[in-house]
Each structure stands twice: as C-alpha cells, then as structure tokens.
# Entry
Amino acid sequence: MQDYRYTRPDDKDTPHGTRSYPYSGGVDCLVKTVKSEGVLSLFRGMSGLALFALPRSALMFYANSVGRNMLHKPCDGQRKHTVTQILFGGVFSQLLIAPTLVSPMERIKVLLQTDPHSHPGQMACLKHIIRTEGLVGLSKGSFLTLCRDVPGFCTFFLTYEKLRTLLMKEGSQQLNLFQTAIIGGIAGILAWSVSIPADGLKSRYQAAPGQSSVLNILRTLRAHGGLFQLYRGAGVVLIRAGPTNAAFFVGYEWTIRCLGGS
# Structure
C-alpha cells in the first residue's frame, strides 16, 4: 500500500490544474481503499516484486560484498570493513540492481496502484507500457530510483554494520536473534527516513502520464502545498520499515550461519 499514500489522486482536477488527494492520512487511505476495493487491492502490483524479491536480495548482498572487497587491500587482513568500503558496497550494489530490476517492476506497480481501473493485471500493464512508450517506458524513473536507493542502502548497510560492531561482545562473532532484529529494524527505519522524499518524487514521476518533467512536478508540489508533500504517508512507511527490515536481516544472518558462514 505504500504508493497509495501519495500517488492515488482524486478523479477530478482542481481549478489550478493539479489533482486533489482524497485521503487525510494513512489510516484514512487504508479504510477507504478496503471499503471501496477490498483487502486484496492493498497488494495490487506486488506479485512481480514478490517473485523477484529473493533473486534481488541475493544479488544485492552479493554485489554489496563484491563492492566492499574491491576496496579491500591484502594488508587489511581480517579487519572489519571501513566506512568507505561499506559505502562503496552500497553504491555498487544499487548501480547494478536499481535500474535493471527495481525500477521496471516499480513502474508497473505504481501504475496499477494509482490507476487500478485501466489495467486488469501486471502483464496487461507491461504490454500497455511497451505498446505506448516502448521498452524505454520501463526505465522511466530509473535515475530517481537510484537517487532513492543509493543513499538509502548506504545508510542501511552502514547503520547495521556500525550497530553490529557496537553490540558484538569481545571474543564473540555472532549476535543473537533479538539483537539482529533490533539493529536491522533501526537500520531500515533510518534508511527509509533518508529515502522518503526521493521515493515520493519517483512514484509521482512514474505515475505521471506523457512526457512529464521532474522539474514540473517539483514546481507543482511547491505551488500547491510545498515540498513537504513528498513526506505524505511517511508514518506508514516508517512503521513498516522496522519489522520488515528486522526480518530481512534475521533471514540473511541465519541463512549465512546455516551455510557455514560467520
């Protein structure tokens, strides 16, 4: 439901040429959406993202490790990764994943969630994009996805690694499940706190018809409510970020342990 919070417009334009928002907040959006479209509408456009969630996460962690090791010198030995290495790993992983996997899937998801009556499903939406905009239509918003994910995941990995180091007891190489969940949740909340403005702008840009301009979207936001509108629904996102990323890192750490890693 995250993109509902700032991209689902009213059916009518305002006298100023902008589109009005019929929701006063996240709870109001939830109640009205469920009443009018049913519970399953909250998951519209999510099956594709769910299908690619596992390979995306695997590729992201692998690319993150490769990026860190690219700056790892033989003389570093077994020392912990430096801040520079952690940040470069975050940047490298998103340069590979955001434009190729994330942005195309989110373009389809945003269109299905913001204009649910125009496309009966994800394949129909995909065909519509290719027919009307060509393959380049799937890449719409790729740069904004990078603007969201590069600082977001750099914050994500850096926060997790620093908190993990602080909690590691002397001589211990592993955290327990509770500690892993807590620092994973904190990392996710901080990451999304950084990413929310770019995410709001990206979703608006991907949902806008025709040859829309990011600059025009920013001008419209500034003229009608201010740039603070980019934070619409931030509470919903941050509430979700905690448990989601707690589970994310618990799954990652315990998978590594089951495979014999440290």
